Amino acid sequence: MGWIPAKAWTSHQPLNGYRHFERVMTGGRGSKRWVELAAVLKPSQRERVLWSELNDNNGWVSGWQPIVEADPESAAE
Fold first, then answer.
1. Backbone angles phi, psi at 39, to 5 degrees
2. Residue 18: which of 67, 52, 53, 55 has the closest Cα?
3. What is the pTM of this model?
4. Phi, psi (deg, nearest 5) at residue 75
5. Distance between CA 67 and CA 13 in Å, rounded?
6. Which residues have C-beta within 8 Å of that of residue 28, sequence separation ≥ 6?
7. Other CB atoms within 10 A of residue 29 CB
8. Are strands 60-62 and 46-50 parallel, antiparallel or unpaired?
9. pLDDT (tens digit per residue) in 36-48
10. DSSP 59
11. Where are the domains of the chain?
């Protein structure tokens, strides 16, 4: 079986205002592998992300995760 990344992804930080994405295309080889993602709420908004970036849990999580926004009052303390 070939290389197939997860279908759904959640970004820890908004990309052009979106956090939930679906895989639409893959390409590249080795360290140049990439995944093209489309925003769930606006499929025409696409982002091409290196596979190495998607594997970094500090930036991305596989699957659609709930978005928990920081409470502005507790962030000020």
1. -60, 135
2. 67
3. 0.81
4. -70, -25
5. 10
6. 34, 51
7. 7
8. unpaired
9. 999 999 999 999 9
10. T
11. 8-64
